[in-house]
Each structure stands twice: as structure tokens, then as C-alpha cells.
Design brief:
Blueprint (H helix, E strand, L loop, with lengths): L5 H14 L7 H8 L4 E5 L6 H9 L4 E5 L3 H6 L3 H6 L5 E5 L7 H14 L7 E5 L2 H11 L4 E5 L5 H4 L4 H7 L3 H4 L4 H19 L9 H13 L3 E2 L2 H8 L3 H13 L3 E6 L13 E4 L2 H7 L5 H5 L4 H16 L5 E6 L5 E7 L5 E6 L9 H10 L3 E6 L5 E3 L3 E5 H12 L1
Parallel strand pairs: 1-4, 1-5, 2-3, 3-4, 7-9, 11-12, 12-14
Antiparallel strand pairs: 6-8, 7-8, 9-10, 10-11, 13-14
Helix pairs in contact: 1-3, 6-7, 9-15, 11-12, 11-15, 13-14, 17-19
């Protein structure tokens, strides 16, 4: 990796020190994509590890790193065509790329010039923490030249089964998970939330009071895995349902909230049609609710719901972009917590339980009769696989993650 000044060198030393701690499963995927296309956009929430991963990749080839939150690095791109042409033979890593919207036109021109010279791949690795902005800008300028990959927080396969409870409590942001104590982890997450509210969210739209957004985010945490009801939330905050939907879009665009859409391919049943809402990362949920320790978590009524969100995040981190995720619920009570539909349309029905002696509810069996999924699975925090009745298999989370990963390839 090229030393492009003392600031970048210091950043590289910091991230190379942290990087060894976690072998990210996304790395070979990013490497493969870079070898197939000119530009790869690695997107995800702030502090999730995008820069660490990008700098690991960049250290193994001629490269240059630019952080667009740095005035010095932004100044280098005051004439982007000149700067990029000077680094045409290197992998150019650009962090927080959405901060310079006009840059995408210059990237397109450089990609096309490099193509004419015979260099068709491995030109740019773009990092962004705001999907709406990044997708809109690159969609206008880089069509056919870019592919996207979301980097999610650390998952169980990256930290080991023995750390399951710590990962559930603290979440998967590397600094939070690896903090020296639960209290230190909670302080990091509290600061993370404050930074988003006071700095990052205001950059993406009209000024919204930070305290209003904090209340909204906290209310979503209290309603983890519940169907979206804009009017109900609006009444609690004294705002309109339209405003609540705008706030939700903003949090989804920043990779802070997941909308799990309902299954829609069963016209013969009266289905619940509102999406289920999950605050992404169980550690952030616990921070918003003031849950600091495992003992507090296990005694809290939200524990089962945060475990459900943790499992959903874990399984989707193992699936590829062609796998779609839904939930299923009829007005009669038939319900499946998570449906995974793979690229070939095969569907797995997944029930999520926190208990070490889990039981399958009647509604799950009825729903499976409706949908006839290929597999009926019950994921739980234990370590053994065994049959639950005639057609349901209880399976540990790590084992199911591995099967989802293999099935997605």
C-alpha cells in the first residue's frame, strides 16, 4: 500500500493492529468481486469494519487510500480527473464516498479510460455508510461498472461459538464486542448512538431534533420484531404517520434498522401485510434500552425479541444477495418467524426460540402446511441437533448459519 502522507500512514497502522483480531468472511467475496468488475462499493453502518477490511485488501496490492471526511484528502480531489489519472495503475480506496456527489462522474470517466487501456477490473473500492445516497449517485453514473456488498457487524462464525452470549449482549460492532468490559462496551455504544444522532443523521436530510430521533430509535427498540405501525408511533411522538415513515426510511438507509417484509405469495390467506421492524445489531438495542449486563438481559422482557433479531441478523449475514428474507403471519395466527427463499426458489421455514428446551407452536405447523417449505427448522441457543416431532429439526445457530452459507453459494 502506498504511503500517501502521515495521516494515512497513521490510519493504516491503527487498522492493521485491529484487523488481525477478526477474520471477516466478507473478505474473499470482496476480493472475488474486485477481480470481476471495475468498482466495488462496500456499504454498511459506520464503525462496522469497512475501513479495516478495505485496508487489509489494499495492503496486498499497489493502492492509495482517501478518506473524504479528511479535508486534506478532499482537497486532493479538487481536480479529480488529474488525481485519479495519476493513480490509474493502483487500487483506489475511497472512504465515505457519498460525501462528494460530483466524484461519481469522474470515476466513470476514469473507469472507461482504464478499460480502453486494458484494465477492466480492480480499479476502485468505494466505502459508504448511506445506502440511499450511494445507490442514487452511482446508479446515475456507474451503471454496469459497479457492484455492491453490505458489510454487516461481526457474526458468530467470525468470533466463535464460545462467544455467543457476549456477541448477543454487546452486538457485532468490533469496538463494542472487543471492549475490555461490558460497561466499556456500553459506553462505546452510547457514544455511537449519540454520534449518529448529532452528526450523521442530520447530514442526510432536513434538520431533525436529535432528541426526537433518539425517542424514535428507542421506541423501535422497545418494539423489536413488531409489525410497523406508523400511526401508533406518531401518536406517541406527537407527529404524523408520514413523518414516522420518513424517519424509518432514514434509519433503513443508514443500515440501522431492518424492514423484514411479509411473505406475499399466498393469495388464499388473509395475511398480515405490514413489515416487521428490527433495530439492527442486538448491542445497539440493548444500549437504547439501558441493558448493560447478561443478567439484566436475561431478566428483561425484551430478551426473546432481541434474540430473534440477533438470529435474523446472523442468518442474513450468512446468505448471499440473491437470498430473500420474509416473515409469514395470517390473521388467524399461523406464523413463521423467518422464511429464507434461495436463488432457485427453495424456501426454508425457521422458528426462533431462546429456550434450551424449545417447543414449536401450533401456528408454525399450520403455516408450514400453507407454504410447504423444503425444510422446517427451529433455531435455538443449544449445541445439539435433534428432531422435534416428525418434521421439525432443532439446530444450533452456528450450524444453521453454516448451512445457509453453503446453500447460498
Amino acid at each position: 500500500m502506498q504511503d500517501d502522507g502521515p495521516d494515512n500512514l497513521a490510519i493504516w497502522k491503527l487498522y492493521s493492529h485491529i484487523a488481525w483480531m477478526f477474520a471477516r468472511t466478507a473478505r474473499p467475496i470482496v476480493e472475488e468481486l474486485l477481480n470481476e468488475i471495475a468498482a466495488v462499493a462496500l456499504v454498511g453502518a459506520r464503525q462496522v469494519g469497512k475501513t479495516t477490511l478495505a485496508l487489509e485488501i489494499a495492503s496486498n496490492c499497489p493502492s492509495v487510500y482517501l478518506d473524504l471526511e479528511s479535508p486534506t484528502d478532499r482537497a486532493k480531489l479538487s481536480e479529480p480527473e488529474i488525481y485519479l489519472e495519476g493513480h490509474a495503475d493502483e487500487l483506489v480506496v475511497i472512504d465515505e464516498v457519498q460525501r462528494l456527489p460530483h466524484l461519481f462522474e469522474a470515476l466513470r470517466g476514469q473507469i472507461d479510460r482504464n478499460r480502453r487501456r486494458g484494465k477492466r477490473t480492480r480499479q476502485f473500492l468505494l466505502l459508504g455508510s448511506a445506502s440511499r445516497e450511494l445507490l442514487r449517485q452511482s446508479g446515475e453514473s456507474l451503471a454496469g461498472r459497479i457492484t455492491y456488498l453490505e458489510l454487516m457487524p461481526l457474526h458468530l462464525g467470525e468470533v466463535g461459538d464460545s462467544n455467543l452470549d457476549q456477541l448477543w449482549l454487546r452486538g457485532g460492532f468490533p469496538e463494542s464486542f472487543s471492549a475490555r468490559s461490558d460497561s466499556a462496551s456500553l459506553r462505546w455504544r452510547s457514544a455511537f448512538v449519540t454520534t449518529y444522532l448529532e452528526r450523521d443523521l442530520p447530514l442526510l436530510g432536513p434538520r431533525i431534533p436529535a432528541e426526537t430521533l433518539r425517542r424514535f430509535w428507542t421506541m423501535l427498540a422497545h418494539r423489536q420484531s413488531s409489525p410497523w405501525n406508523a400511526e401508533q408511533l406518531a401518536g406517541s411522538l406527537g407527529l404524523t404517520g408520514k413523518t414516522m415513515s420518513h424517519y424509518l426510511d432514514l434509519f433503513v438507509d443508514l443500515f440501522l434498522v431492518r424492514r423484514l417484509t411479509p411473505w406475499h405469495e399466498n393469495d388464499g390467506k388473509r395475511l398480515v401485510k405490514s413489515p416487521r421492524i428490527y433495530v439492527k445489531d442486538s448491542g445497539i438495542v440493548h444500549s437504547l434500552l439501558g441493558i448493560a449486563t447478561r443478567e439484566q438481559l436475561l431478566g428483561h422482557p425484551i430478551a426473546g425479541k432481541t434474540w430473534e433479531g440477533f438470529v435474523v441478523d446472523s442468518l442474513l449475514s450468512s446468505a448471499d444477495s440473491r437470498t430473500s428474507a420474509h416473515y409469514y403471519r395470517t390473521t388467524g395466527g399461523a406464523e413463521i418467524d423467518l422464511l429464507l427463499q434461495f436463488a432457485d426458489s427453495e424456501v426454508w421455514a425457521i422458528e426462533i426460540k431462546r429456550s434450551l428446551t424449545p417447543k414449536v407452536e401450533k401456528g408454525f405447523h399450520i403455516a408450514c402446511q400453507d407454504l410447504k417449505p423444503a425444510r422446517h427448522l427451529l433455531v435455538y441457543p443449544g449445541t445439539e441437533r435433534y428432531a422435534v416431532g416428525a418434521d421439525v429439526e432443532a439446530i444450533p445457530l452456528s450450524a444453521l448459519m453454516q448451512e445457509v452459507r453453503l446453500r447460498s453459494t
